[in-house]
Design a protein that fits this description.
The chain is α+β, with helices and mostly antiparallel strands. The protein is 38% helix and 13% strand. α2 runs antiparallel to α5.
Length: 209
Amino acid sequence: MSDFSPDFQNRLRDLMRWRRDVRRFRSDPVDEDVLAACLDTFCLAPSVGLSEPWRVVRIESAAARAAALENFSQANDAALAGYDGEKAKLYSSLKLSGMQEAPVQLAIFCDESTGKGAGLGAGTMPEMRRYSVVGAITQFWLAARAHGLGVGWVSILDPDRLNIDLNISKDWVLVGYLCVGWPEETSETPELETAGWEDRRGHLPIEGR
């Protein structure tokens, strides 16, 4: 018997459906209490060996933001060069980051050197630490959406260069660069699907063995 009502289950599914990768933000500031409430969900996330390897860096200074944006711009140009024809034309029309507008920007790292958890569960699969960080980001993302905030995950970056520019420990590996703010609009359809880049699967393919 579930502890949660059918109404709660349906609303949770709605929350997941309305969680979008946002790249178009309003300039309005984010209330610090709301942001803190969302970030607190990291403390609720599961992690391999209870290692809690996530490390959050808030990108606030003009210099740090400029370096991150330049990093994206160069990586984006390189990515564009990998396409040709109609795909290149479509790629060049996509807005792939909200780094110029988002009032809050967070770099989320995995501390590969953490002693917390004593390596439990990470001996054969050390990447589980990074997967744990991804799980924590997902919880943050859903909490942000529940508060009406949008989150955009920027993956077109050179992580090694970002570590250098932000003076980050070499033991910390970039997992996600998040733009956070109030979205210009909300939609349950992924923007890449709307733009015609790719279609979303309507079902989960499951194989048996």
